[in-house]
Amino acid sequence: MAERLIYLPLGGAGEIGMNAYVYGYGQPGKERLILVDLGVTFGDMEGSPGIDLIMPDITWLEQNRHRLEAIFVTHGHEDHIGAIGHLWGRLDAPIYARRFTGTLVRLKMEEYGLPAEAVNIVAPRPEVTQVGPFSVQYVPISHSIPESSALIIDTPAGRIVHTGDFKTDVTPVLGDAFDPVGLSEIAAEGDGVKVLACDSTNIFSTHPGRSEAVLATPILEWVMAQPNMVVATTFASNVARLKTLADAARASGRKVCLLGRAMRRMVGVAFDSGVLKDFPDTIGPEEAAKLPRNKVLLLVTGSQGERRAASAQLSRGRYLGLSLKEGDSFLFSSKTIPGNEKSVGRIMNALSEAGVEVYDADDGLYHVSGHANRPDIEAVHDLLKPRIVIPMHGEHLHLREHMLLARAKGMTSEIVTNGKMLDLTGDRPKVVDHVETGRLYLDGNQLIGSMDGVVRDRIRLALNGHAMVSVIVDEDDKVLPDAWVELMGLPDKTRAGGDLARHVESELSEFLERADARTVRDDGKMDEAIRKITRQVAMEEIGKKPEVTVIISRLMAD
Amino acid sequence: MAERLIYLPLGGAGEIGMNAYVYGYGQPGKERLILVDLGVTFGDMEGSPGIDLIMPDITWLEQNRHRLEAIFVTHGHEDHIGAIGHLWGRLDAPIYARRFTGTLVRLKMEEYGLPAEAVNIVAPRPEVTQVGPFSVQYVPISHSIPESSALIIDTPAGRIVHTGDFKTDVTPVLGDAFDPVGLSEIAAEGDGVKVLACDSTNIFSTHPGRSEAVLATPILEWVMAQPNMVVATTFASNVARLKTLADAARASGRKVCLLGRAMRRMVGVAFDSGVLKDFPDTIGPEEAAKLPRNKVLLLVTGSQGERRAASAQLSRGRYLGLSLKEGDSFLFSSKTIPGNEKSVGRIMNALSEAGVEVYDADDGLYHVSGHANRPDIEAVHDLLKPRIVIPMHGEHLHLREHMLLARAKGMTSEIVTNGKMLDLTGDRPKVVDHVETGRLYLDGNQLIGSMDGVVRDRIRLALNGHAMVSVIVDEDDKVLPDAWVELMGLPDKTRAGGDLARHVESELSEFLERADARTVRDDGKMDEAIRKITRQVAMEEIGKKPEVTVIISRLMAD
């Protein structure tokens, strides 16, 4: 059978988060595979209460692990590496990454007791990593974390460029600049670029993206204008931003104090891996507390309103001996990710109540995006001249808009969402398979399927409350007269002001006294009847039907 | 004792939503009172799962209802009238409103079996409503609903202007235009304006607000450019927007079909009360389904992503015989309220999957805000020339910014959040009391306090899952050997792949067999020990500690 080139997203296509893209080459069903990135997304109370992390269901890949040559990591953001600690054991394939990214991945491997030596550090193009039928090169590209890379994936069926996350920043403050000449060289080699798998995050932003460098002056001016303590928060992984903020502190005579584990770790890794070379000396919180307030800048975690991060702790009062006061200034040098508005707002309002001046980046002075805007995406199209564009890293809306753009420019383009296997061998890509995909939830220390019902039950409990009924049936199949009802997450009063649990009990007792022997002997019938009565009584009294759990205990003759 | 003028927000000050502002005049503790507005805010899964509506805790006002002269309603938005049906019975005071607003309030009263005749319809200034020491006039002002009004509240201690929600729109398409000359007349009468209680929602928007009228051309051009079915959603209460959209339909040869109960009701009330005079004839969904797709415009509810509204239903497939297809167009002529981003995004992506072109108002072409921006607020300051500005209708951040603005302009200003009683008698307002306030949750048909623990328990159930343990103690205080464990919202497997519930049972049985008589006789000790073991075992096996409910049944000798 003829060999083919396939593309199969397991995560990240039709959503922003948990990126995991498979490429394969070989005879159908026997393709040798590589995986690009293995990230997470974050749970929330609305869709996944109690779940910290969500990752792609890689069952298909696990079943085909004997065909998996390697995992290539484009950059160190959690939505690209966050699942490695949890899922690598199921795949057991060598990992490739550049130094900074690889250091972050190694830390993750160690954290989960996995072999850090599985992570191979590679240098950028022209270094080539050969795995099976794939020759892979790392192409430095700019993003909001150091060392983000596009991948050139050369296959017998042609050249793929997988952008990873990128922006077209030629003055990124720190790390790799966008290199248009380099990209046009990639397009000029051999048969050029057959397939471009391309970041779609900012496809709806119609103005050209702005460089990280434009923030230096506004941030410096802002810091210099503040009379007292200055606090700034951004993603810890945005090392360029940390540097801009720290440089502004130094230039205005302030000492920098890093607060939050991620902040300290990221600066450490950036130093050790050589991407960060010049950063002011930092001080600890004790020292910061002793200095005059106008001599300190705190760089803190928690720009997305995370409850346990430094920003939230500071907003609630004292944190590591530091507290904010009337006249202090707090800068969110960040964009609030959709869904986090309320958490971020809560912190901003708490700071406001303490008299702190809160500044956000809404006017564009103190934050730039890490993703390519529409004209930037077009520039990359034009430089790489791919014959086929596959939009990735986006919700369906983004993928669709990117597809329409690519088609309007005369390129072939398809929307490929998670689980669709695309055959890229010929000139016209076609979907050749649908693979079962989905989401895995990390719950405590277990990975559960999103469709297992566990989380659905939790949502029901949260919406409806829980009534528990315990009934005892004696040795002679006689129900003992008292049903016992416990309520949780429900109002405890009846309409008339009585006790709701006792009222349900008495209604149940009435039924149980009259229940015939056939019903009493049948757990299923008992359960159904008790559930129905409980819900009915609750509906009458409080206007809602709770979840009901019935426990029937049958006494045995000694 | 000298008489005094007081201001006491019970809701809406320190939050956007559930507006309820009390003014009083008289001897301290004996002031005669009026209430301005009585609104709701909406619950969400994160903070209040299972709760549909949240309203201010008016306990203080209920205790002082003998002093309450009247309730004045500024306009018909739910955050200003939504609690009337639920709370009016506790206050039993006459309600005043203009015709359109009053009609909406009367419908609410009827819906809850309350006397619609308690609602008095008043005309705008110069009509004066005299209640106790207050002379109240309605001042037409523009907003995103017809007939929004500011109130002039004249008291022996001076004139208050309470803006309600407003924008400074001189061409509002429909309803009252902003009237700067009228405002300056209000300032010129008598001693002028002592206190301005003023909307703060858009204090952070630095450009002048835009008129509703600027949307007509872009919306018409947009509708005309669409090849197939057109759907548009906005708040049903934004009757001016409905008219703009419907006029665009008519001008482009499309019939208008209203989908969603609120949409039909609002148009009806607008007609009946005379604020809407010219609106195209509408057709029903059956007729819409029969017409060519390019001859129809659906005006639908659900611009905020509400699950049961028409937008959501259409995004999920067929609704009332209508379904959307490749090439149809869907316009969100609305701003997404913070917190609703994910719900709105879900609908947009579902539409995108169906091939529908989705348009939002991000570029400003298809939506304008209903609130005054910072320069507009300044214009109102300048026209009314108040001596004291009280920022209201805003989160703490907004109130603080508005206060700083007012002070910078030389006026006296204080942040007054819910529950603070401000004495406004003299030149310098001062907080003279703190009143217990809070939130009431509508749960099913009951109103429960937000701090009652019911919702806190639900959140715990959702985050942690629920383990129920049933234990039976016999007539001789001997524990029957089998504990029964039921789990809900928890993974069901142990680390080793066994059944978690059975595993907890066997661990509990071990304890129960060894438990001494004193423990067994003591419900409290049993409960504590069983809870502890259950949580410990779960922690070991699944890495999380569930909520635990223990039911101990004690058999009695016959």
Automatic annotation (TrEMBL), chains A, B:
This is Ribonuclease J. Residues 17-207 form the Metallo-beta-lactamase domain. SMART domains: Lactamase_B (SM00849). It comes from Paracoccus liaowanqingii. InterPro entries: Metallo-B-lactamas, RibonucZ/Hydroxyglut_hydro, RMMBL, RNase_J_2, RNase_J_b_CASP, RNase_J_C. One of its GO terms (molecular function) is RNA binding. PANTHER family: RIBONUCLEASE J. Keywords: Exonuclease, Hydrolase, Metal-binding, Nuclease, RNA-binding, Zinc. CDD domains: RNaseJ_MBL-fold (cd07714).
